[in-house]
Design a protein that fits this description.
The chain has 263 residues and is of the alpha+beta class. The protein has 12 helices and 5 strands.
Length: 263
């Protein structure tokens, strides 16, 4: 089978799966009204929200939605659901658990996780079901991205006014969770005109881990301590990007980078 191009890596820890499933569920729930517009003969509500799991899986992994991929993912999720329905009838009465099962099964169908790994995720979710429901229902966890919409100048202006008053070093220390991975998107001039970035760590295009905050200066802004392999160093936070939008550090870093570019 041809390898699937996955832009966004799968969660590495059970807790990360729990949070992502909550985000995926909210994404699917927001899509219910639009599904009814597409097919007015079918009634959609949270009781059958598990049908949305394959599509949300593809969206969250950044996988191109070809006909074959959609069919493969949907078949894996729904056939697994049907095969397990008798054994898990009580669990599947919960729309949240039915969705979680199909979301994980979609990853298995794409070959992104093993069957054993899939069952271990579902077992963890079942044990932490109350926490999952809390994450879904907690409106505070919903990040307002309207400022990032190019067409919404007012939202950007309002956000920028907040940024201008912000003590960035203190705010970042409070809102970032370390360590986390980033990719360097900007660099010194030599990285653009030579091949130096290929041979030196922390340079343009390279991926490395941020270990913590470092310092701040007027010219380059906030610096962070980073690690690539066995080497450690310091780079300007304005030069990096958290590649996955579903990493909790994505938006705090994005806010800083956008503010720094527009100051």
């Amino acid at each position: 089978m041809k390898a699937i191009n996955v832009k966004n890596p799968i969660p590495a820890k059970p807790e990360e799966w729990l949070r992502e499933i909550a985000e995926a569920y909210c994404d699917a729930r927001d899509a219910i009204p639009f599904a009814e517009l597409i097919d007015d003969k079918e009634e959609f509500d949270e009781k059958n929200i598990f049908h949305f799991a394959p599509g949300v899986c593809l969206k969250f992994r950044g996988i191109r939605r070809t006909k074959n991929i959609i069919e493969q993912t949907t078949e894996a999720a729904l056939s697994s659901y049907v095969a397990t329905q008798d054994k898990a009838a009580v669990e599947f009465e919960s729309p949240v658990m039915a969705f979680a099962f199909c979301y994980v099964a979609s990853h298995f169908g794409l070959g992104l996780i093993t069957e054993e790994h899939g069952y271990s995720i579902i077992e963890f979710v079942e044990v932490r079901r109350a926490e999952l429901i809390h994450l879904i229902d907690d409106e505070k966890n919903k990040y307002d991205t309207t400022w990032n919409n190019p067409g919404n100048r007012k939202a950007f202006h309002d956000k920028y006014c907040q940024w201008e008053k912000r003590q960035w070093l203190a705010w970042l220390k409070e809102n970032l969770s370390f360590p986390f991975d980033v990719k360097r998107m900007e660099d010194e001039d030599d990285a653009y005109f030579t091949d130096i970035a290929r041979h030196e760590p922390f340079r343009l295009g390279r991926t490395f881990s941020v270990l913590g905050m470092s310092s701040e200066d007027d010219l380059r802004g906030v610096f962070v301590k980073v690690k690539e392999g066995r080497k450690t160093g310091h780079v300007p936070l304005c030069d990096v990007e958290v590649t996955s939008r579903y990493n909790p550090n994505y938006w705090p870093v994005k806010e800083y980078v956008v503010w720094f570019a527009n100051r």
